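Quick check before the chapter quiz. The format below is the same one you will see on the exam, so make sure you can read both the input and the output lines.
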Amino acid sequence: MGQGNSVWALWQMGGAWLSQHLWEHYAFSGDEAFLRERAYPLLRGAAEFCLDWLIDDGHGHLITAPSTSPENSFLAPDGQIVGVSEASTMDMAVIHDLFSHCISATEILGIDSEWRET
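Here is the expected output.
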């Protein structure tokens, strides 16, 4: 068996990242039927996963933890090369995009205003 590595072996935001392609398809095509029937249900599902995954960092911010950034590692304070942290930039950027796309989709489609406000 090979050696595992947290840098590439686990990334909880994979679904959220992949859902960006659904929004890109809508943004390019303007196909509201696609947005309503195919993209939005998956975008919302990915957003709900992220809402469940986020935790309060104790300073009033929602973060991902544990968090990894695919294909990225860094030096810990003790000098070890590690790949697991809190609130990796990749996680936070993907979640920001996903939430922004969900907000836009609900406004375009005129649906789920109560969910959007939570």
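If your answer matched, good. Residues 32-53 form the longest helix (22 residues).
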